[in-house]
Amino acid sequence: MNFLKTAAAAAISVALLAGCNDETTNIYPPEPTEPTTVRFATYNLSFDRSTFEELVTEMQISAADQDVLMEKWFNDELTEDELKVVEKIIQIRNVAAVIQTERPAVIMMGEFNNDGLGENQDAIKGFRFNYLAVPQNALGTTSDEKQMLEPIQFAYAENFSTNTGLLSEFDLDRNGTVALPGDAWGFGFYHGQYAFGLLSQYPIDTDNIRTFQDFKWKDMPGETNPTITNCEDENNPIPEGMKCGDEWYTAEAWAQKPLSSKNHVDAPILIPTADGEKVVHLLLSHPTPPVFDTVTENNKLLNSAEIQFWNDYVSNADYIYDDAGVKGGLGLDASFVVMGDLNADPENGDGFLESIQNLMNHERVNVLATEGVYAPNSLGSTECYAQGDCKENTYPDRVTSTFGLRVDHAIPSNDLNITDSGVFWPASFEDGHMLMNDSRVGWGDGKSISSDHRLVWIEAEL
Predict the structure, then answer these.
(1) Chain CA centroid to CA 144, Å
(2) 304-313 burial string, b = 16+ CB within 10 Å, else e?
(3) pLDDT in tens, 103-122
(4) Alpha helices (H) in 294-353, listed in sequence order
(5) DSSP state, 95?
(6) CB count in 10 Å sphere of residue 294
(7) Contacts of 372 (CB under 8 A, 6+ apart)
(8) How far is 148 from 67, CA to CA, in rounded Å?
(9) Each residue's pLDDT tens digit, 160-206
(10) Nearest-angstrom CA–CA distance, 249 and 168
(11) Residues near 235 by Cβ (< 8 Å), separated by ≥ 6?
(12) What is the b/e burial string over 165-202, where b = at least 16 CB atoms within 10 angstroms of the residue's CB?
């Protein structure tokens, strides 16, 4: 954890950052000394706003204007409309404080909405310059005490296109109409909701990024059109004109149904080391949650298949093709980290667990970081379980979400020497607990104060 030593230092830092406007003003990583240590993190930020424009507006509020509104919050002087804005500022500031505390060199950001295509950079740029590059309070934005953190800068950023909210031409949910959100290729009320992005202090090899947004579910070996299996449930009647055992999607819809509910991305980063440049492939995704099924097991099946994709990809399966038409998976000598909210706990939950279990124990994976001594954990999750606020879990110290499951993962290849790991979840007796809980904000925890997920990190020595 890096703190600013004085209030004057904090003021100077803010003043310097006020002139920043784009990548050219960022601080790049220093030349490597032996060895190079890199911290990889994944964090579902819970920035799932009603529109992308809402998120852009919040991210573009200057630090000075944020401070004015926060002073009114502490003095209980806000109007009703101002309070709605301030509660979003509190959430974003707290998320930024979590990132500044753990200081990853690379972070995959889940539920960071975009324009659907990943082209509009306004929100991610605003987050970088108006929040991450401004000192935040390590004790929580709403704390009366102050421990100001050092800003953190990322020279490189990427947004990625998404299937969420991308309307298909088919009645995918079989309700008689074609409309959002149920008939999007990935659930979403608008194109770009629940998207994900990437920040890195190391160059992203953009020319060699591979995306798999259009890879078809039907093209994965062993996968078939889901069928109606829940046949006598009065709370979930079978749609009119269908019967038990029928295939859920029409032949035309099944032929076009993408595997990825958002996207699958292979983003290589270039890390200078004492032995030369090291390429690490960041394998990014956010599979659909394996819940909300009615008469089929669509979501369970899709979640499992989306995770199985990475099992096959790191095995260099030849059936795989990317959005540019290039075939094949990842080279067997390549280094990688699978990163994201995979919506799958290897021991608990509603999904089909074989895919996540196989991935975490894959022959190419460093199992010390998934099931061994470097499996990320926290005291906060253990306390949550002990207090009855998190549901029962086989490994309560490894839980990464307020709903009591270990769903957020950073899974490294076995050639990466993992030396440390963690889940940022301070217990009530640790500094930073107010970043997770404050009864004065929204419903007190979860997305209202920061996120219902926790930042997970691993550290590799290269």
Answers:
(1) 30
(2) bbbbbbbbbb
(3) 999 999 999 999 999 999 99
(4) 298-313
(5) H
(6) 17
(7) none
(8) 14
(9) 999 999 999 999 999 999 999 999 999 999 999 999 999 999 999 99
(10) 12
(11) none
(12) bbbbebbbbbeeeeebeebbbbbbebbbbbbbbbbbbb
| Burial of 42 from C-beta contacts in 10 A (0-12 / 13-18 / 19+) | buried
User: How far is residue 437's CA from residue 435's CA, in Å, rounded to a whole number?
Assistant: 6
Which residue, 431, 360, 370, 387, is CA-closest to 137? 431
In contact, 82 and 72? CB cutoff 8 Å = yes
pLDDT of residue 285: 98
pLDDT tens digit string along 5-32?
A: 544 444 444 444 444 444 444 455 556 5
H-only helix segments in 298-369:
298-313, 354-360
Q: Which tens digits make up the pLDDT trace of 305-329?
A: 999 999 999 999 999 999 999 999 9
Give the bridge partners for 108, in sequence order.
Answer: 42, 198
Asked if 286 contacts 341 with a C-beta cutoff of 8 angstroms, the reply is yes
Q: Structure tokens of 436?
A: 């997770």
